[in-house]
């Protein structure tokens, strides 16, 4: 049995993860963490998904993580980095699904992976990771002459934009075209923008309702266009990917990995 802790237990992803872990025969939910002041603190984590499991939601990671081998964290960047420091000190591996990190914060994650195993990926679904491979191939074959635009849509509660997945898609396409995303990204357009510069990669963000997560990469050429789209219809797809990542870490005691490594498609 692999002991798994979940941070952000009462969140949208936290609930999907509790359901997935408590249903997996080879995994045991060993801790459930929430932010200080959470109304869910002190309650049975299983109650959030309809089946009490005896794990009480804690706001004290220092004590709650004592029994855990892997922490799956889908929270906010600051919370993830606090958990990271603790996990690094205790030798607890981490699956990090949180998005919205700055470059500096990402460097901290990279550094911690010298001591512990970390899978860090903005999207844990198998489908999106296959799409990343398709994007690499499409960009290499199409080359210059096709304008690249990335459109993402998410639910009204999402706090970061563009999504981590959209940014990763941009990085993959930029790398395939020999560009640096930091230099060629255009985040939204307004007013008299002038004509589109050919070397740019544009991003457009939509927020509304309960959209789980849609991503489209458009390659627009002369006389034709290609759209590569992924639509998530349930958070279970992210949760199942996170569990695959946790099992992978049981065999990889240190180092920084993403879902391409977990799926063996790097
Ligand atoms: N990598 C992937 O496949 C996916 C990544 N995400 C990312 O995961 C993150 C969470 O997404 P949602 O679950 O939709 O958000 P949410 O807002 O529903 O849940 C976040 C939870 O974290 C908790 N939290 C905040 N600070 C905390 C702390 N210090 N300790 C413990 N818990 C804390 C909040 O109280 C909340 O319950 C976002 O960054 C999102 O972009 C979401 C879906 C898939
Ligand atoms: O916040 C979300 O919901 C999601 N966030 C991830 C991201 O920012 O890419 C992944 C997924 O699209 C859902």
Please supply descriptive tags for the structure shown above.
266 residues, alpha/beta, Dihydrodipicolinate Reductase, domain 2, seven-stranded parallel beta sheet, five-stranded mixed beta sheet, 9 helices, binds 1,4-dihydronicotinamide adenine dinucleotide, binds ligand LZUJQKHR, EC 1.17.1.8, DHDPR_bac, diaminopimelate biosynthesis, amino-acid biosynthesis, DapB_C
Q: What would the CATH topology of the largest domain be? A: Rossmann fold
Integer count of domains: 2
Small-molecule components bound: 1,4-dihydronicotinamide adenine dinucleotide, the ligand O=C(O)C1=N[C@H](C(=O)O)C[C@H](O)C1
How many helices does DSSP assign? 9
Which stretches of 5+ consecutive residues score pLDDT under 50? none
For the record, give the distance between the C-alpha atoms at the N and C termini, rounded to a whole number: 28 Å
CATH superfamily of the largest domain: NAD(P)-binding Rossmann-like Domain
Mean pLDDT level: 98
Order of helices and strands: EHEEHEHEHEHEHHEEEEHEH
Q: CATH architecture of the largest domain, please? A: 3-Layer(aba) Sandwich
**DSSP strand content:** 15-25%
Walk across the major sheet and give the strand order: 3-2-1-4-5-6-12
Instruction: Please give the share of residues in helix.
Output: 25-40%
Biggest beta-sheet profile: 7 strands, parallel
Globally, the shape reads: elongated
CATH secondary-structure class of the largest domain:
Alpha Beta
The Cα radius of gyration reads: 19 Å
Question: What is the β-strand count?
Answer: 12
Structural class: alpha/beta
């Amino acid at each position: 049995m692999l002991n798994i802790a979940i941070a952000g237990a009462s969140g949208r992803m936290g609930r999907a993860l509790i359901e997935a872990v408590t249903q997996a025969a080879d995994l045991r939910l060993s801790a459930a963490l929430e932010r200080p002041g959470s109304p869910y603190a002190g309650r049975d984590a299983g109650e959030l998904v309809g089946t009490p499991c005896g794990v009480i939601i804690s706001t004290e990671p220092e004590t709650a993580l004592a029994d855990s081998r892997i922490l799956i964290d889908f929270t906010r960047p600051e919370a993830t980095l606090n958990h990271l420091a603790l996990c690094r000190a205790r030798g607890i591996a981490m699956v990090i699904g949180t998005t919205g990190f700055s470059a500096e914060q990402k460097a901290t994650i990279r550094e911690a992976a010298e001591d512990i195993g970390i899978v860090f990926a903005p999207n844990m679904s198998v489908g999106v990771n296959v799409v990343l491979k398709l994007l690499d191939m499409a960009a290499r074959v199409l080359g210059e002459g096709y304008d690249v635009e990335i459109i993402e849509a998410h639910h009204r509660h999402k706090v970061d934009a563009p999504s981590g997945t959209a940014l990763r898609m941009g990085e993959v396409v930029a790398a395939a075209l020999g560009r640096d995303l930091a230099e060629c990204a255009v985040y939204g357009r307004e007013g008299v923008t002038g004509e589109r510069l050919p070397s740019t990669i544009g991003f457009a963000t939509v927020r509304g309702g309960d959209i789980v997560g849609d991503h489209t990469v458009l390659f627009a050429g002369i006389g034709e266009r290609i759209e590569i789209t992924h639509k998530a219809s349930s958070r279970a797809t992210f949760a199942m990917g996170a569990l695959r990542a946790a099992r992978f870490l049981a065999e990889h005691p240190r180092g920084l990995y993403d879902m391409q490594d977990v799926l063996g498609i790097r």
